[in-house]
């Protein structure tokens, strides 16, 4: 895909990550690496590093509304990625703002479980994501623990159990679902894509690395960037499918290149700027 002469403007609505590998900091790196202009609205201040999450401080819904209105009334936003949302008030605030200033594309990464296993939101936050934000999105990108939380079921351990979740996930309202299979064991790392046209396995080899911090954020923000780069006359199904494929290939390379980084003592980040340095 070629980049338009004027880069598209993209927005991440997400929590922070002081270590820079996930959250809005990771999203901004991905957006920038993929030739889009990054903007952001912060939903939570999180004390975390490569080893885990220590504390979460949600930003009040009123302040999130101010950030959104102030930004969206001024800057044309071509695509939005929504990450961590901790309450029903925040979810409805985001929904209402995006209804007033509807971008062309909305991608939801239902961030509820950190890579360390830490649960980041309470039951009300889970309901808010499922009932308010999923129907708003064009694409959702849950991993297996997040899909299980959304559907109040056990985390799948096999591809068969993974596939069994897809009909219920699709029924939640987003037309495109990328169910990420990275938590499965084995040499393969398959994702499952549901579209209005059917279901498809997206196969990929597993990369031998512990640098997995922020991989979910990186994939969803890469999908957002590639969607934002699509021309206005793009065919919806063909080009959404292509954007998801391009994002997966970019993330695969970023994971492979993460060996060149030395960040933290736990799960390090992917190398967002592998094409540059």
UniProtKB/TrEMBL annotation:
Pfam annotation, one family = Phos_pyr_kin
The UniProt keyword set, sorted, is: Kinase, Transferase
The EC number(s) attached to this protein equal: 2.7.1.49
| Superkingdom field | Bacteria
Q: Which pathway is recorded for this entry?
A: Cofactor biosynthesis; thiamine diphosphate biosynthesis
According to the UniProt entry, the coiled-coil residues are: none
What sections of the protein cross the membrane? Answer: none
Whether Transferase counts among this entry's keywords is: yes
Class of this enzyme: transferase
Chain ranges of the Pyridoxamine kinase/Phosphomethylpyrimidine kinase domain: 17-271
InterPro entries in alphabetical order = HMP/HMP-P_kinase_dom, PM/HMP-P_kinase-1, Ribokinase-like
Please indicate if the UniProt record lists Protein biosynthesis as a keyword.
no
Q: Which GO terms describe its molecular function?
A: hydroxymethylpyrimidine kinase activity; phosphomethylpyrimidine kinase activity
Tell me the PANTHER family matching this sequence: HYDROXYMETHYLPYRIMIDINE_PHOSPHOMETHYLPYRIMIDINE KINASE THI20-RELATED, PHOSPHOMETHYLPYRIMIDINE KINASE
**Name used for this protein in its record:** hydroxymethylpyrimidine kinase
The gene designation is: thiD
């Amino acid at each position: 895909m070629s980049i338009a002469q004027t880069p598209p403007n993209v927005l991440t609505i997400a929590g922070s990550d002081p270590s820079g590998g996930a959250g809005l900091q990771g999203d901004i790196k991905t957006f920038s690496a993929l030739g889009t202009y990054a903007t952001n609205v912060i939903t939570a201040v999180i004390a975390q590093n490569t080893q885990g999450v220590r504390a979460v401080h949600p930003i009040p819904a009123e302040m999130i509304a101010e950030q959104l209105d102030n930004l969206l009334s001024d800057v044309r936003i071509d695509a939005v990625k929504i990450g961590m949302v901790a309450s029903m008030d925040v979810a409805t605030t985001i929904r209402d703002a995006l209804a007033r200033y509807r971008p062309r594309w909305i991608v939801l990464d239902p961030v509820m479980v950190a890579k360390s296993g830490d649960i980041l939101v309470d039951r009300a936050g889970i309901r808010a994501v499922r009932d308010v934000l999923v129907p708003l999105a064009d694409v959702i990108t849950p991993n297996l623990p997040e899909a299980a939380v959304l559907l109040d079921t056990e985390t799948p351990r096999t591809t068969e159990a993974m596939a069994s979740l897809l009909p219920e996930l699709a029924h939640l309202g987003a037309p495109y679902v990328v169910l990420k299979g990275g938590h499965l064991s084995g040499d393969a790392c398959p994702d499952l894509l549901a579209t209005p046209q059917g279901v498809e396995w997206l196969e990929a080899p597993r990369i031998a690395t512990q640098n997995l911090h922020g991989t979910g954020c990186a994939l969803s923000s890469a999908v957002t960037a590639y969607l934002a780069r699509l021309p206005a006359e793009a065919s919806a199904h063909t080009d959404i499918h292509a954007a998801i494929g391009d994002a997966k290939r970019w993330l695969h390379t970023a994971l492979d290149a993460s060996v060149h980084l030395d960040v933290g003592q736990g799960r390090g980040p992917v190398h967002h700027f592998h094409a540059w340095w």
